[in-house]
Amino acid sequence: MKIGLVAPGIWNSIHLDMAQALGALGHDVAIYTEDGRAESGARFLRFQEGRLDFYVISHLRRNPWTWIFDRLAKPWLGRRFFTTLVAMTRYFAATRDCDMYFVEGDWTGFFVAIIARFMRFRWVLCIHDSDYLRIPLSFPGRPSSRWKEAVKLWVLRSAGLVRANSNVTRDALIAGGCEAHRIRVVPLHITGWMRVDDIKDMAAFKAQARAEVRAAWGIPAEEPLLITMCRLVPVKGLDLALRGYARAARKRPGLHLMICGGDRVVAGLGSYRAHLEAIAAEEGVAAQFIFTDNIDIREVKRYLAAADLQLAPSVIDTFNYGLIEAAVVHTYTLASDMAGAGPWVQQAGAAAIVPGRDPEIWGEAINAYFEKGVAPFSGSAIVAELEPQRIAAMLLELAREVVSVPV
Predict the structure, then answer these.
(1) Can you tell me the distance from the alpha carbon of 131 to that of 108, in angstroms, rounded to the nearest whole number?
(2) Residue 114 and residue 297: Cα distance in Å, rounded?
(3) Which superfamily does CATH assign the domain made up of 2-189+387-403 to?
(4) Is 354 exposed, middle or buried (0-12, 13-18, 19+ CB in 10 A)?
(5) Does domain 192-385 have CATH number 3.20.20.140?
(6) Strand partners, 351
């Protein structure tokens, strides 16, 4: 089978892994992407790597033939709408021998849905977020736009099928108006940077990480550490993590919470870090509450391995790779029932799902973890479950389903 993959910025995303996995299974993959490797916004840079055939335009330059249209449409459609539309049209014209296409993201799908009105091809829209869906969910900073909601729903209805990366995503899509029978759930895969193949002794790695991280932040070696590893934005539910932790800390002196992630300014709220600091002061736990700022991707494993427990109380999180990253270094997670990866990690014995958003219940769950413990688990179970070639095989089944339906 020859598969098209439309994924702008593929070298800075998770999608290159999947293209390589499809190639390893014996399929040719024609990739449209945008990157600084290409010098032109009008001419493709073409090259091949194994079974991957790349069609690349510059991620910054405009097509000189559409420059005036791009400038006129910029206030509504962004700075390169027509440059991108023309480039994608040329890509689809050049790859007519593809059996079907995977299209990553709703805005990318907008271009494809327009082109599909003039060309015949089969495509699957892959959705990884809940933005601009008309769902009964509100939190500070949630993006809102009536016309973007309408466009997203039109794009969802235009695709042959919709790939949701979790049941949370599927449920949000249904609530937003996408027909349930057109949605298929296929999880995301373990990425290369998450793997721990080079760690031969996990127990020793965790002991060393525990000592180093505690020493760096002045945490006594015998005192337990909770951690969150995510963007500092309200949708991650960090206010609930902090309030639940505060309730547990009242019963368990010496309990620390480390929040890893760079500060964000949230519309209507201001600095999210300052907002959390105010909650910590209100709850009386400011002295045991640590902000690390951004953690380098090469250091994430070490920090997660150093913690006793990760908290992931997301308001809505269509997948949440933090659960996976903690599991592979044998760190348990308490996750909300709105964290998409939760069921897979729970099945591997590496997480418990805490229902609802009551801080008292979260505090009780934290205390129960330290009082009762959990059964030993291995990160290898979740790695095997979400191995790239296994997920690629699931996507191929979805592709065959689309190909079997006449255009």
Answers:
(1) 14
(2) 37
(3) Glycogen Phosphorylase B; (3.40.50.2000)
(4) buried
(5) no
(6) 333
Residue that has been written with the tokens 């949630």 in this structure = 142
- Decide if pLDDT at 407 tops 80: no
Q: What is the mean pLDDT of residues 90-117?
A: 97
The pLDDT tens digits for 77-98 are: 999 999 999 999 999 999 999 9
Contact call for residues 379 and 330 (beta carbons, < 8 A): yes
- Predicted model pTM: 0.92
Q: How many CB atoms lie within 10 A of CB 113?
A: 20
Residue range 135-164, pLDDT digits in tens: 888 888 888 889 999 999 999 999 999 999
C-alpha count within 13 angstroms, C-beta hemisphere, residue 30: 19
- Name the residue ranges covered by the structural domains of the chain: 2-189+387-403, 192-385
User: Can you tell me which residue has the tokens 């953690």?
Assistant: 295
Nearest to 113 by CA among 151, 71, 144, 56: 151
Residue 170 CA to residue 173 CA, distance in Å, equals 5
Residue 312 sits at φ, ψ, to 5 deg, of: -135, 70
